[in-house]
Design goal:
about 160 residues; mainly alpha; Growth Hormone, Chain: A; about 0% strand; globular
Length: about 160
Amino acid sequence: MVIDLFRSFAVPGYLAVGFGSAIGFIQLSARLFDFLGGNRWDGLTTGLVAAAIMPPALLALALGEGAEWSIILFLVLYGLSSGAMSVSRATMPLVFFSSAEYGAVVARLGLPLNLAFAAAPPFFSFLLGEAGNRWTLAFALLCSLGALASMALLSRMRPAKPG
């Protein structure tokens, strides 16, 4: 999907593939950074930071109209955000539920999450093809702002720390 998005900005195919493949490395870097942080922050804090990074990533690409600097900034911010959000999704239930409840909670959350992950690429590909990159990025920005608002609301619902 991201390769098609880059190509919609007239980025040559070989560069679009090269840029697109860099996302995985950046996602891994975000996960490594979180791992090296140890227990300094929980999944909710990681998720809130990750959600806050995504809107500027999308804005950079949209405002830069696919210029090389905007693609690189997008890749770095998007990669960090999505990598950190992966960590958050796995650990955030532990903020709200006990370790004993973790498996059941993750299983209940798994189906809607997997359905959303499965539906997103074809939907965004359709939107990109039918409405163009501006509308696709605008919709993605709207979704990312919704995710940020959701993370902020979850932060307000954080259980009090014992002690």
